[in-house]
Amino acid sequence: MATQPQPRLIGECAPDFRLHYSPSQTLCLHHMTTQRVIVAFCPAVWEPTTKGQLALYQQSLHLFHERNATLVAISVDGVWCHMAFAHHHRITYHLLSDGSPKGAVARAYGVYDEERDMARRALFLIQDRRIAWQLVVPDALNPGLNGILTALEELSE
Fold first, then answer.
1. Which tens digit of pLDDT belongs to each residue from 132-142?
2. The domain defined by 18-156 carries CATH number 3.10.450.50
């Protein structure tokens, strides 16, 4: 069994990215400098645990916005897959495709599973272009909200 890469360290500069959320539109991390950014890496959007996780985040967007945070979710699924998922589940935040080259951003963050050829389930909180908090969990576990909300509160103190 191959060893998994380790996620970036707290305080390190967050790797920049430009990923598609539609066939003709991209989102760049470096353009999101006025807010904290929550980056949720997921193995695949239609996978049952991910569906629950992303739906929970949709229901909780107001909690993130109240704390001056923006959420984006990233998987290696293609843009059309993300668009179908977002439409079906009424997701309004950006689902970003890390599909070309496959997993490049997940690799940059140290959360790419080479054996499964997809991202591991991980959360990063980025503030001032630096990683302020992170959590990597088993793929079958929904990380929920508590860790993110606690980290956002602690950064506000």
1. 999 999 999 99
2. no
